[in-house]
Amino acid sequence: MKYKKNILITGGAGFIGSHVVHLFVNKYPEYQIINLDKLTYAGNLTNLKDIEKKNNYIFIKADICDFDNILSIFKSHKVSDVIHLAAESHVDRSIKDPFTFAQTNVIGTLSLLQAAKECWKEDYSSHLFYHVSTDEVYGALEFDDTLFTEKTSYDPHSPYSASKAASDHFVRAFQDTYGLQTVISNCSNNYGPYQFPEKLIPLFINNIRHGKSLPVYGKGENVRDWLYVEDHARAIDLVFHEGKTRETYNIGGFNEWRNIDLIKVMIKVADKILGNSEGASERLITYVTDRAGHDLRYAIDANKIKNELGWEPSLQFEEGIEKTIRWYLENQEWMDEVTSGEYQMYYDNMYSDR
Ligand code: NAD
Ligand code: TYD
């Protein structure tokens, strides 16, 4: 069958990527979706079980940094467009191991850009390179009412955000230098099913379930803007189809929470579901040494995508967080699978000071 587009989605076995792959495979039978993922500790094909037999879906295990292989995949699969999500994504890991972040996030992105440049040079206008990025490239806000807009200057602080900022710059450089058609979106913190339990929300749900301590960094006063992952996937769909090239779109939940307040909400909901007395798990809260360079506050002004493309978050936070907590508690097998073996060793090593 000849497909209208052959879209390479990188990082499709990860958290956000698996939601994007689901959405595109199910919504667009006229597109071939090529999910390319290295399957690092964060990639898990279980996330895609229900679509793996679909005709318009292909999985390729590959490393985005391996340029020769990426180029040959572009050619053999006649890749027409890219939605690039593959990355090392956890700030704490980037503090311990910045080289891997530079390698995957910068060199990996460059390798994809270079392959796209070579394969699409006859007619750049009929191809799109969509780079999925983070609001962390903008640095940190104070505790006031300022928000990150698309015009906020880049000021990354962690090795993770520095590597994402560098990759954003490479994407724009390929547009300006060679004429590749690109678009970037910068999103706030996502939550929902299939997130690896090293990030705040799934880690804490799992720890509440097992009565383990909840390590709150510093005083728990840092603020994040949370968005349900399926709302992010819908925004990616819109930006891919209707976004203007060379533009940036900020995506956020209009939903700021101080970490400690969010944690107390999670405890309340989880205790109710688990049949514990209300707030019982608050005793698990343990204040630990703050993260180095911990960004105070992130908050997105998502009015551009709202006004220009008509996107808004669809799920209220109260509903989203309950749905998420139920999912993790009901999918303990998934949790056990991803936290076993290699991950457990890495985790124990990383947090041996706790
Ligand atoms: P994730 O860590 O859950 O998944 C990353 C995926 O990339 C994994 O499947 C992993 O196997 C794959 N991968 C890693 N290195 C690779 C390589 N060298 N080659 C091929 N595949 C590789 O990440 P996520 O949270 O789903 O984030 C996806 C993207 O969205 C990232 O680019 C991230 O920067 C961005 N983002 C994430 C958030 C968030 O809150 N999680 C917010 C904004 C933007
Ligand atoms: P995280 O989920 O790692 O996302 P990010 O650092 O990209 O925002 O962390 C969200 C917030 O929760 C952040 O302010 C750090 C804090 N945090 C903790 O207090 N304890 C933890 O164990 C983790 C993982 C995060």
List key phrases describing it.
354 residues; alpha/beta; seven-stranded parallel β-sheet; three-stranded mixed β-sheet; 12 helices; 12 strands; 43% helix; 17% strand; binds nicotinamide-adenine-dinucleotide; binds thymidine-5'-diphosphate
Question: In a nutshell, what does this entry contain?
Answer:
With 354 residues, the protein is of the alpha/beta class. Helix content is 43%, strand content 17%.
Question: What characterizes the major β-sheet?
Answer: 7 strands, parallel
Low-confidence stretches: none
Task: State the strand order across the main sheet.
Answer: 3-2-1-4-5-6-10
Bound compounds, each kind once, are: nicotinamide-adenine-dinucleotide, thymidine-5'-diphosphate
Helix content: 40-55%
The share of residues in extended strands comes to: 15-25%
Radius of gyration: 20 Å
Which structural class do the helices and strands define?
alpha/beta
Number of DSSP strands? 12
Tell me the overall shape: globular
Question: Total number of helical segments?
Answer: 12
If you average the pLDDT, what whole number results?
Answer: 96
Element pattern in H and E: EHEEHEHHEHEEHEEHEEHEHHHH
Query: First CA to last CA: what distance?
Result: 55 Å
Walk me through what this model shows.
The chain is 43% helix and 17% strand. The protein is built from 12 helices and 12 strands. Helix 5 (159-178) links the parallel strand 5 (128-134) and strand 6. Helix 1 (15-27) crosses helix 7 and helix 8 crosses helix 10 (317-330). It binds nicotinamide-adenine-dinucleotide and thymidine-5'-diphosphate (TYD). Thymidine-5'-diphosphate is lined by residues 91, 189, 199-200, 203, 215-217, 222, 224, 259, 291.
